[in-house]
Amino acid sequence: MQTVSRLIEQFTPEHYQLSLDLQRLERTFSGTVTINGTATTDSGKITVHAKDLAIESVTLDGKEAQFTLGENDELTVQHADLHQGRHIIVFAFSGTITDTMHGLYPCYFEHEGTKKELLATQFESHHAREVFPCIDEPEAKATFDVILTTEQGITVLGNMPVKQQKVENERLVTVFGTTPRMSTYLVAWVAGELHRKTATTKRGVEVNVWATPAQSPESLDFALDIAHRTIDFFEEYFDTPYPLPKSDHVALPDFSSGAMENWGLITYREIALLADPATAGVSSRHYIATVIAHELSHQWFGNLVTMKWWDNLWLNESFAELMMFLAIDALHPEWNIWLDFATSESIMALRRDSLDGVQPVQLDVNHPDEISTLFDGAIVYAKGARLLRMCQHYIGDEAFQTGLKAYFAAYKYGNTVGDDLWNALAKASGKDVTRLMNTWISQSGYPVVSAALRDSELQLSQTQFFIGPHEPSTKLWPIPLNASDPSVPELLDSSSTAVPYSQNTPLRLNVGDSAHFISHYDDELLGRLMNEVKNGNLTPLDRVQLIHEQTLLARAGIISSAKLLPLLEAFKTETTEPVWDIISLAVGELKKFVETDDTAEQQLRQFAGRLARAQYEQLGWQPQEGEDETITKLRTTIAGLMIYSQDPEALATAKQLYNDMALEQLDPELRPLIIGAVVRHNGSDELINTLLDIYKTTPSSELQQDIASGLTSTKDPAVVKRLLDLIPDASVVRPQDAARWFVWLIRNREGKELAWRWVRDNWNWVEKTFGSDKSYDDYPRYAAGALTTRSQLEEYKTFFSPLQSEPALTRVIAIGIGEIEGRVELIERDSQNVRDALAKL
After folding, report:
1. Cα(551)–Cα(493) distance, rounded to whole angstroms?
2. How far apart are CA 416 and CA 745, in angstroms?
């Protein structure tokens, strides 16, 4: 396997002068780039990155130079006069605009019956080299002057404000201001027909939200409000001004990721930025707010201060994930956003990080194709944020903020490694942050802390927590226990300890759910906690944490899955939306045990209906004027449980609402549930055709997502096959949405076998379409998350094992095999117990 060469070690770029002519209709581009920089060796050559570019000429210090193309996208320039010191290299080149959704690519939309396009860029992680020769590494920071030549009559956006625009030879020439020092992966532009809304921050930064004319002006308002207030928050919190004169936020019709933090020109999927008041629900607005805050935090974490290399990607993503919750909590405290953190980031991290072979937060990169595998949302984003939240709790909010201010002051416009941050936080807090945090980010997995009462002692021990097959582990962590009782030590950094303990009060570990571990209480301690549940003495966060930890312990075989049934019954009077999210999740955990037993499945459905009945009768289907947003979200969870229970009245109401209202008029929180219920229980060819027609023609990405969610709920194999056949058809399903359709269908019990067959039959299409994209490993990953039988396990091994030689898939396939093995073993171990328990309810 080829290893990554660090080209910054032999040439340091200082300034790029990039001039490009974008021929959209011809799907080509051409231009020149002048790189001023310093060679650090006397090797007689300089190597830069270039991929899929036709290099037409190279000059070095004004003289023609020779060049060769090598492996790993390397372009080497050779000249007798090339020596250590400053040089100017000029490349003339051309390339092709393709539909890969990285490099330079088109975005398609329709407006007033006319098909139109934008051109946009996506350079993270290492795709700038597909558009111009450069040192395409995060440490290779330089300033950039960019000139774009395009068709006339369009908007052209870049990292910096437009310095000058003029028409030459009937083409529009746009000159942008010089950027600050920045990494190549953050260079960006968008060119096409756009409209905007504008606001100004307290300090005078211009904030713009842009969309195609297919989107209503009103859909930009919510994002604009969040964006300019978030910049104000971060400027104050970091005590560091936003570094650029403007902040553009652009909704792209085609975009592989959720959003991208290009400096001064953040790009988004439309669903992650636009909130049309006519169709956007509470959950959508909350999602949009967090995405905007995540990307804006990157303007400091990642853009102003950047990791030296991709092994420290967490310095960007983990912090952005944490900071988005801090920002939105400050802007909208009534949202109780930290409960969302517990029901999203924490759950995602704990589930993924329990599998043997999963990557640690900080991971070495030894091959270019491995870079894309670093972007594991459950690890580098969610687990990393959880670890940083643990650090924040450990040293205190004030020291945490003081350390960040010092970090930005010391390293702005530069590059760092993790220890630079830990040292800043350690200095601010007086605590050994480096020792604590390096252990957590360098080790995969996390511990389960067992707590047991023995003869007036509390015995505590830690072992690595696994779900599924695993190698023996001797890992230890310094664990901030955050216990409810002060007699329990602050840290557990050995395999076990015992402390005198005679209290009869309930003991809770990890209060606030900030540390990355789970607790296994003995029967006595768990019984005390359950009494606290009955007496209403646990906070919503405590209750979320308790239920989820029990589901994890059941998954691992530490307790029987049948024990989840009485646990959930204790929560049937629950009234808090995040807790009901976990209850619904736990019910979902039980479904796999009854899929092949009609009687047991019906008993589980009835159990779910009994759990939700009281809340259902209180909430109904119609939102009340002025109700709390959490109640609006809770109604959907409760109605979903009633639909799963096949309650006749709930199904009839869903059908009636669908028939009585246009889709846009349905409560946006309930809309996907209503569509899914009607498709699943009343699905006709006419209904499917109608929904597909709306899907193809609506400009609303949120409505499209709701329809896709509903359609993929079908239990008709013919409809499943029809939907699967549509996935490769880009005129119906945009490539950015293909994985979502596949995931929903393979998670649908009636669609599982067909979807599993489809991904194997269409793997050549998957590889061709997504092989160079971050989403490539979604397909083996989500297939592994859905398969449940030994025969499917063997099929997974047979199909995917030969693909493990691909660096982008090596880890995800190995983890997938273990994940399926663990699920199959769990089903075989616990199915009868769960069925017996259901029969006794």
Report:
1. 26
2. 43
What is the rounded average pLDDT for all residues in the chain? 95
Question: How many Cβ atoms sit within 10 Å of the Cβ of residue 243?
Answer: 18
For the stretch 659-716, pLDDT in tens is 999 999 999 999 999 999 999 998 899 999 999 999 999 999 999 999 999 999 999 9
Average pLDDT over residues 399-416: 96
CA-based nearest residue to 594, from 585, 583, 605: 605
Please, which residues have CB within 8 angstroms of residue 731's CB and are 6 or more apart in sequence? 696
**Rounded to the nearest 5°, which phi and psi values hold at 51?**
-135, 130
CA gap 425, 324 in Å, rounded: 19
Token duo for residue 325: 């919750």
Strand order in the sheet with 54-60: 63-64, 54-60, 85-96, 28-39, 11-23, 143-150, 171-176, 162-168
Helix axes 671-682 and 648-660, enclosed angle (nearest 10): 110
Euclidean distance between CA atoms 318 and 560, whole angstroms: 34
**The token pair that represents 417 in the structure block:** 């490694």
Question: Residue 841, SS3?
Answer: coil
Pull the structure tokens for residue 596.
Answer: 């092949």
Residue 413 to residue 409: CA distance in whole angstroms: 10
Kind and range of the H or E element at 56?
strand 54-60
Tell me what pLDDT residue 3 has: 63
At residue 368, the pLDDT reads 67
Write the pLDDT tens digit of every residue in 692-702.
999 999 999 99
Q: CB under 8 Å, gap of 24 or more: what pairs does 563-570 form?
A: 564/589, 564/590, 565/590, 565/607, 565/834, 565/837, 565/838, 565/841, 567/530, 568/611, 569/611, 570/530, 570/533, 570/534
Cβ neighbourhood burial of 235 (10 Å; 0-12, 13-18, 19+): middle
| Span 732-783, pLDDT tens digits | 999 999 999 999 999 999 999 999 999 999 999 999 999 888 888 999 999 9
Residue 393 DSSP label: H
Q: Which two tokens stand for residue 732?
A: 């119906």
How big is the CA angle at 445 (ends 442 and 446), to the nearest 5 degrees?
Answer: 105
d(CA 135, CA 774): 21
Structure tokens at 121: 């860029």
Measured CA to CA, the distance from residue 779 to residue 770 in angstroms comes to 10
Q: Is 836 exposed, middle or buried (0-12, 13-18, 19+ CB in 10 A)?
A: exposed
Query: Is the distance from CB of 784 to CB of 820 less than 8 angstroms?
Result: yes
CA 246 to chain CA centroid, nearest Å: 26
Peptide bond into 125 cis (omega under 30): yes
> What angle do helix axes 752-761 and 717-726 make, rounded to 10 degrees?
30
Instruction: Give me the residues paired with residue 89 across strands.
Output: 35, 60
Element (H, E) at 67: strand 66-69
Tokens 């069925």 belong to 835
Give the CA-trace dihedral at 828, 829, 834, 839, to 10 degrees.
80
- pLDDT tens for 64-91 read 999 999 988 999 999 988 999 999 999 9
Order of strands, edge to edge, in the sheet holding 155-158? Answer: 103-111, 114-122, 189-192, 155-158
Active site annotation includes 767? no
Q: Given 117, 124, 139, 295, which residue is catalytic?
A: 295
Task: Enter the DSSP assignment of 454.
Answer: E
Is the pLDDT assigned to residue 293 strictly greater than 50? yes
Strand stretches in 484-606, DSSP E: 491-492, 496-500, 518-521
User: Residue 1 has what pLDDT?
Assistant: 45
